[in-house]
Class II aldolase/adducin family protein
Amino acid sequence: MTDNRPSHISEDEWALRVKLAHCYHLINFFGWTETIFNHISARLPQIEGEYLVNPFGLNYTEITPANLLKVDVDGHKLDESSYDGNPAGFALHGAIHAARDDIHCVIHTHTNEISAVAMKQSGFTHDSFYGAQLYNRVGYHAFEGITLFDDEKSRMLASLGEKHILVLRNHGIAVGEFDIERTFFLLWTVQRAAEIQVTAGALGGEDVLLDTSISQKCADLTQMLIKDSGFAIKFFTAMVRKMEAEKGPCW
């Protein structure tokens, strides 16, 4: 999709912008937005320390490939724009992009279900089909207030460790993977796990618990499935088709 690409933007960067803009629209399509808040970022290909993020103040449905902001890991704009980024996102996204070479996309949400799980001392359980896929993949970070300050970066990174899911206690979640498609699929899995956990918690009776070996097997198989098979790309592009079939073209 290069028809509307400005001359100063490379084809690789434009392709990334198209995918990231679609990701924003998908988050809205699934009902996971928090009005103009929250953020999704994607690291620019073959460029150290630069990533794309949403212009603060726009609804997710107003985001296009062209109006995404290009910033460095400290949140400074690298291209002209009448918009600024959301400062609450720079500490989180900048820290992860600077420290984790295996994470090229980060999505932050706080849906009702995810925020409810983040409130619970036990966090995510791993006894549902989706919860099992998250086994040994979740880190937890204690709430320190709105994420604005550089001194929290090291503590967030320590909480995340080598994992790909960071539960922000009393707040929400951040997920990160090697590309936009894998990150979106991971978020979808986390959201489904949270929805089922909240629903099961509202029912009476005891849950059927899984042996941790089964949960680990599920997590390993899921990782194997999305690593090289193209599964996440198929899922992402199918969801874009579904969205555009129902809502029309995004831009």
In short: The mean pLDDT is 93. The chain has one domain: 11-247.
